[in-house]
C-alpha cells in the first residue's frame, strides 16, 4: 500500500515531477497569447458594480460627472454595459466608477491581471473587521438561543422519564 503525501524526491533541492509539470504549465500560461485580454472580465465587473451600487445608474453617472469634471450620462453607462453595444469604459472613468459605486472590482480585474497586489485602505479594513465582529455577536446570540432551547427540551425530556 502506498503512503499518500510521500515525496518521491530524495535529494534536497531537487524538484519533483509534479512540481516540474506545474512549473511548466505556469510558464506556458505566462507566454500564452492574449493572456492579458480582460474585456469580458472587465465588462462583467462593471455590470456587477453598477448592479451592487445602492443608487440608480443616473445617480452613479451624476457622481462620476462631479468626480471627473467631464460629462458622464446614464445612457453612456447603459451603453458601456450593454452586450449589444461595442462601447467600452474609458480608463480615465474607471476610478470614478469605482468610487461612485463603492465597488473596486473593475479596478481589481486590471490590477490582478497585471500581477499587482492591492491593499484596501485602513478605514475599509476597519469597517470589515467591525462587520465581522457584528456577525460574530449575532451568531453568538443565535447560538445562545439554540443552546437555551436545547437545554429546555432536554429538561422536559428528563422530567418525562
Name of the top-level CATH class of the largest domain: Mainly Alpha
Tally the beta strands: 0
**Through-space gap between termini:** 51 Å
Q: State the share of residues found in helices, binned by percent.
A: 55-70%
Largest sheet: none
**What CATH architecture of the largest domain do you see?**
Orthogonal Bundle
Helix-strand makeup class: mainly alpha
How many individual helices? 7
- H and E string: HHHHHHH
Rough shape? flat
How much is the average pLDDT? 85
Determine Rg (CA atoms, Å).
26 Å
CATH topology of the largest domain: 434 Repressor (Amino-terminal Domain)
* Number of separate structural domains: 2
Roughly what fraction of the amino acids lie in strands?
under 5%
Attribute tags:
single chain; 161 residues; mainly alpha; 434 Repressor (Amino-terminal Domain); 2 domains
Q: Which helices and strands occur, and which strands form pairs?
A:
Elements: H1 17-31, H2 39-52, H3 57-68, H4 74-81, H5 94-101, H6 105-114, H7 122-160
Provide a descriptive summary of the structure in words:
The protein has 161 residues and is an all-alpha fold. It folds into 2 domains: 39-114, 434 Repressor (Amino-terminal Domain); 119-161. It is built from 7 helices and no strands. Helix 3 crosses helix 4 (74-81) and helix 3 (57-68) crosses helix 5. It starts with 16 loop residues before the first helix and ends with a helix.
Amino acid at each position: 500500500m502506498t503512503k499518500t503525501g510521500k515525496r518521491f524526491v530524495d535529494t534536497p533541492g531537487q524538484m519533483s515531477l509534479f512540481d516540474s509539470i506545474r512549473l511548466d504549465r505556469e510558464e506556458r500560461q505566462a507566454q500564452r497569447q492574449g493572456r492579458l485580454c480582460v474585456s469580458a472580465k472587465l465588462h462583467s465587473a462593471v455590470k456587477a458594480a453598477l448592479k451592487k451600487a445602492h443608487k440608480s445608474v443616473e445617480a452613479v453617472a451624476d457622481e462620476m460627472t462631479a468626480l471627473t469634471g467631464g460629462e458622464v450620462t446614464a445612457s453612456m453607462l447603459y451603453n458601456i454595459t450593454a452586450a449589444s453595444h461595442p462601447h467600452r469604459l474609458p480608463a480615465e472613468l474607471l476610478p470614478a466608477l469605482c468610487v461612485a459605486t463603492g465597488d473596486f472590482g473593475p479596478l481589481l480585474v486590471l490590477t490582478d491581471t497585471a500581477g499587482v497586489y492591492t491593499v484596501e485602505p485602513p478605514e475599509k479594513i476597519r469597517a470589515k473587521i467591525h462587520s465581522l465582529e457584528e456577525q460574530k455577536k449575532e451568531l453568538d446570540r443565535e447560538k445562545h438561543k439554540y443552546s437555551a432551547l436545547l437545554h429546555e427540551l432536554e429538561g422536559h425530556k428528563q422530567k418525562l422519564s
